[in-house]
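Instructor's aside before we start: the two examples that follow are unrelated to each other. I chose them only because their records fit on one page, so don't look for a connection. First example below.
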Amino acid sequence: MRWICLSYFFGATSFFALAGGQEGAPKPINKKVVQGDLVILASMPDTFVAGSAMHVKIRVHSNSKDDIRYFTRTKYLDYDLELSDSKGRSVPLTRFGKTAYGDYRGMGGSGRIPPLPAGEHIEVTLNIARVFDLTDIGEYTLSISRELRLPGRRMELKIEKLRFMVVEEPR
């Protein structure tokens, strides 16, 4: 299976340009977890400039022999994101993040139940700077999970400890 992370190239472009194409340009972080017939992959750069978009690309691939039907709403409601700073403290949510991940998360709303054909994948790119206040420089740790509501069972897919840096713009 081939997987090229376009979000890495687009998300890191501004930093790479600011770094003058030299050493210090972001490197990709790729993490893969296999759970039964499903594989979850996450990819993102290891460094972002404070105030820039910070994209993480997530792919859920089915190795099943049969189609899987799963419940979905919107990309930000489908995935649970946890972000902590270098001291283990939760990072504050943005105004958008409070709407998507605040007190009313999981309450109400409609969704759909599309099929995930055997051998196919679902893919999404999330801008974590839209959800969390990442204006402070430092090291952060991201965990991503998604509960798939499959017919007759639920399965939680989780990728933990994606570590990245938020840096100042070069002068």
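Example two begins here.
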Amino acid sequence: MAISFQYTHEFRGEQADEVYDKVMGWLTKEEARKVVGVRPTSIEAVHGSHKTMKGWNRNAKKKLGFLFSPSPNGTAVSVTASPTMANSSDVAQMAEDARLNWGLLAEVSCQIMTYSSVAHAKADFATIFENFTSYPMTEVGGHFEQCQLLTLSSSPVVVKEYLFQQKNVCGVIVFSTVWGYDLDQAWIDEMLDLQESRIV
């Protein structure tokens, strides 16, 4: 089972060149290795240390891929974080912790699990859904083969989690807001459609 996490963030009022340089500066500060960039569109790097005992911790060794693209208000950055082969089993067991630890500043995060067959994906989706039965879930139409929405509100944070299954892939897309900031539903729908289109 392959696992990776996707995060997106919009840098409002900033051009791609500026954001690219900021990310490069952050990677340098973090002592990332094997940094390869194509200015101002993409960066790949290895972040973290193999000495970190818990593979899901923030500083665990991981591969990062950054894609920069224009957005209506500035520059959007899409980040994919994948564990190294040595950490993959640890991350699979503590996926939620890894997702949070690796993307604390993300507005949107996505955990993806790829299975060997559609049947396996549907079976795991059913199991995950059963584990959420103590929370109010809402069926969401128009996105994915199966999609359920869980909304959690604990001031000042509001979290919307979309649990989905599409073909041989299951995942959770999490949208979080702070201090009452309202996420536009049309933008959420666009993000869900984007993720669905990536599943071939």
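The mean pLDDT is 82.
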